[in-house]
Specification:
By secondary structure, this protein is an alpha+beta fold. Helices cover 39% and strands 20% of the residues. The protein has three domains: 6-295, no CATH class; 302-414, no CATH class; 423-480, Orthogonal Bundle (Arc Repressor Mutant, subunit A). The protein contains 15 helices and 16 strands.
Length: 482
């Protein structure tokens, strides 16, 4: 993106809901979509005398992510009270981490136009979520709002990047890779619609070549890759125009209006001292030993950026193919299972990215619920390769294979779709077609080579698509040039 001599400076704060069954400091359920205020107790409501008890699984998940993102895992970390008033915050403070977080100084590599760029991770810390305000109409026109505390104290990991991102495109690539890591690690479902994965962005601009940062604004609660890119692009351009006109960027928090495609001021930007952080008196410092860390390290899966590098080397696929296949752990496994049975990676990749993904979308299914097994896809591709059926027939029966789960070989036999590879039979049909279109034959012989496709189509129509395409082209060309 061209910003006419300026560049954006972007740092992202990502909030990821964790896949724990219970909340961060109590035993209430974290299940999404329950009846409002049904998953609450004295602890997550902040009632007098109720004390928090730390959920060990949240710590496991934090260490897991920290290791995946090359962070230092601090052997000692503490919880802090982040004080602010808002109707959906029942205690009047949020238990978070501040000066001593659990993870620090990591990084995540992304690729922009085939070039690697490293985005540094400043910190990862654990915190509890607030509740949720439900507005009568819109936040601007509501005369009252309701509060649902089910989300109160649901465990979050906040992942804070350094301001290493320069464009909205880089921001989206970073967020996609981070989201994939969380899903691969099985610690967050990455559901942006339900708010399981959302981010705030700190945005400033400066002239290219400058080293000093400009005044930043914060964009809150971005939960769609499309609108993250659009809002960042708008905010960068807004700040550039403001500076060019002699104005000054004000440090503030802004929201993005999806319908109008603009950002607007929400409130003045808070600094850390505004929250009056102090150590949480009801929780002891968290001490993590080496064995705890190493036990978790041993259980780490192959991560998406590792899988991308392996797929590129092992299967010799284009990066575009690899990034699509690896974007879903189940899809990557499906690909590898199929290649084990039909060892032609590019062919398998093509069928997955076209035929399979189309069927998944049409049936509203995820890759883990693919309606055709890797074994059946490999069998279908083998039938095409050995000439039993044409690619055209293969694509025509693919939806039926998905619907029925039938064996491709049996379906082809039952429907009489076996490809015609008999030279004399194809030659006989060619003669019939050429006799039917003498004018077109003459035009072809006069130099209108494009008519070859017309004759191929006519023969295919006559044979109901069953003529061997390669043999048909050879015989047809030989006959027309005779």
């Amino acid at each position: 993106m061209d910003y006419r001599g300026f560049e954006g400076v972007i740092g992202l704060e990502v909030h990821a809901h964790l896949l724990t069954e219970s909340k961060l400091f109590c035993g209430c359920s974290t299940k999404f979509g329950a009846e409002p205020n049904s998953h609450t107790c004295p602890t997550c409501m902040g009632l007098p005398g109720a004390l928090p008890v730390l959920n060990k699984k949240v710590v496991d998940f934090a260490i897991r992510l920290g290791l995946a993102l090359n962070c230092t895992i601090n052997r000692r970390s503490i919880f802090a009270r982040k004080n602010y008033y808002y109707p959906d915050l029942p205690k009047g403070y949020q238990i978070s981490q501040y000066e001593e977080p659990i993870c620090e100084n990591g990084y995540l590599d992304i690729y922009i136009n085939e070039e690697k760029k490293r985005i540094r991770i400043k910190r990862i810390h654990m915190e509890e979520d607030a509740g949720k305000l439900v507005h009568e109409d819109t936040i601007e026109t509501s005369t009252y709002s309701l509060v649902d505390y089910n989300r109160s104290s649901v465990p979050l990991l906040e992942i804070v990047s350094e301001p290493d991102i320069r464009t909205p495109e880089e921001a989206v690539e970073y967020l996609k890779m981070l989201r994939d890591c969380l899903i691969y690690l099985e610690i967050c479902d990455g559901n942006m619609e339900e708010g399981s994965f959302r981010c705030d962005a700190n945005v400033s601009v400066r002239k290219i070549g400058d080293t000093e940062f400009g005044t930043r604004t914060e964009l809150k609660n971005l939960n769609s890759f499309k609108y993250i890119e659009k809002s960042l692009d708008y905010e960068i351009k807004r700040q550039i125009e403001l500076i060019k006109k002699g104005g000054e960027v004000v440090q503030e928090t802004r929201l993005y209006n999806v319908d109008e495609g603009v950002t607007y001021s929400m409130r003045g930007k808070e600094e850390a001292h505004d929250y009056r952080y102090f150590p949480e008196p009801d929780l002891l410092p968290l001490i993590i030993d080496d064995k705890w860390i190493e036990d978790i390290r041993k259980g780490l899966p192959e991560l998406p950026f590792e899988k991308i590098e392996r797929f590129l080397k092992e299967y010799n696929l284009p990066r575009y193919d690899v990034e699509i296949l690896v974007s879903d752990r189940s899809l990557a496994s499906y690909f590898e299972d199929t290649v084990m049975l039909f060892p032609e990676p590019k062919t398998v990749s093509n069928w997955i990215m076209t035929e399979l993904l189309r069927e998944l979308k049409a049936r509203n299914l995820e890759a883990k619920d693919a309606p055709i097994s890797p074994a059946n896809l490999a069998e279908l591709l083998t039938l095409i390769k050995d000439g039993t059926i044409s690619i055209k027939i293969g694509k025509e029966i693919f939806p039926e294979l998905c619907s029925t789960g039938a064996s491709p070989k049996r379906l082809v036999q039952d429907k009489g779709l076996i490809q015609i590879s008999d030279e004399s039979a194809i030659a006989q049909t060619i003669e019939q077609i050429l006799a039917r279109f003498p004018k077109e034959v003459a035009e072809f012989k006069a130099g209108k080579d494009k008519l070859l496709g017309f004759f191929v189509g006519q023969v295919m129509k006559e044979t109901k698509g069953k003529a061997n395409p390669k043999l048909l082209n050879e015989l047809l060309l030989k006959r027309l040039k005779a």
